[in-house]
Structure formats: structure tokens, C-alpha cells
Amino acid sequence: MQSDIGFALLISLLAGLATIIGSLIGLLTRDPSPRFLTITLGFSAGAMLLVSFTELLQNGIQSLGPTMAYMSFFAGILLMFLIDAFVPHAYMGERCDLRDRPDNHQDADKARLTRAGVLLAVGIAIHNFPEGMASFAGAIQDRHLGIAIAFAIALHNIPEGLAVSALMYSATGNRRTAFLWALLAGIAEPLGAALTALAIAPKLNGTVLSAMLSMVAGIMVFISLDELIPISRSFGEDHLSIIGIIIGMAVMAASMLIL
Questions:
Q1: pTM (2 decimals)?
Q2: How far, in Å, are 115, 155, 159, 236 from residue 35 at the CA level?
Q3: What digits encode the pLDDT tens for the residues 117-138?
């Protein structure tokens, strides 16, 4: 059990720190290709949707029965809805409105950009926290499933880290500050995994784990439909967005069959 928990925490940490990769890309390019963002976010959404419905929710139905599994699933959706509705944060797609600003901002404009960057980092951290729960719960259930979930999460953490670092760099002109804000947004993921481990490890059993996996499925479906797909389409590459979603589903399905 200890080795399973350690492995689950490790892959959650790696998935969260994928924001570092995005941060470095943002600091080096500051203007990533819309096609890259469209395909990456679509791919991640497709992978998360497929694993949510075919693995996580199905596991709950088989273990708990349809009633409890669906209740847990919709509890996850409700949780994310309440967080989105009541915790102040910025939507990642709002970054697109700021990309064309000139570099010589006035102080007030820089302050507004800094606030937007902070709210964006908070918003990403809000979503990363339950994603840490997702990768942790998946890895406890099955290591291969945990790796698959962590991969899908890490993939969309790259453009998230990119968004935070590019916006904060535009606001402050300081690469270190931009990098640290992206890092802080990513740390929320292993923190979510660690708190989950502390909460459920003492009383972990098949029923608790299955309920948690069903709830995680709801969380991942909400994130995919409410954030990843809309942002993927917001770059004006609609066909590439659906192609990314399909490829993400296909790759996840193939990995489930192989593993």
C-alpha cells in the first residue's frame, strides 16, 4: 500500500510540474502557434473524456451499482461548478484578448495585467487541485490507469503554464516572476494528491475508492467540457479542435488496450 501511495503521489507531481514545460515555452516564444494550442487542448479533452466514461465511471458502476456511481459522478460535476461559480479566478481563454497589447504599458495597465495573471494562475490552480485527486485515485486503482490520466493532465498543463508565464512576463518583464507563478499554479496538483492521500489512506477500501473514481470522472468531464474544449475552439481552428479530441480519444483507447 505504501508503495502504491508513493507512486500515485509521484505521477501527480510530474503531471503538475508539466506547467514548467509550458512556462519555458511561453518565456522563449511568447506567441505559440494557435494550432499547437488547439490540438494540445483538444487532445487532452478527448483523452480525459474517454477515460472518464469508459474506465472511471464504469468501475464505479460495476463496484457500487448505477445509483451510487451516478450520484458520485454528478457530485464531482457539482463540486467543480460551485468552485467555478464562487471562487474568483480568470478563464484561461481570456489570455487571448491580451496577446496583442504593446510592450510599453503604463503602470496602471501593468497592474491590471498583473492582476489578470494572478487570477489566471489561481484559476489554473483551482482546476489542478482536483486533477491531482484524479491522477492519485487512478494510480491507486491501477498504475497503468494512473499513468494514462496523468499523461492527459500533463498535456494540457503545458499550455496552462504557457498562458500564465506569458501573461505575467508581459505584465512584469521579469522572467523569474513569470516562471514562479506558473510553478505555483502547477504545485496545486501534487498538493491535491497529497491531501487526498491523507484523507482517504487510513480508511481506503474498495467502496471508497470506487466512489472517488466516479467523482473524479465527473470532475474531469466538467473540466473538459467547460474549459478545455471551449478554449481549444477559441483560437479559430475548429476542425483542428475536433481532430485533436478524436486523436486524444484514440490514443487513450489504444493505451488502455495495450496496457
A1: 0.76
A2: 27, 15, 12, 9
A3: 787 788 888 878 888 888 888 8
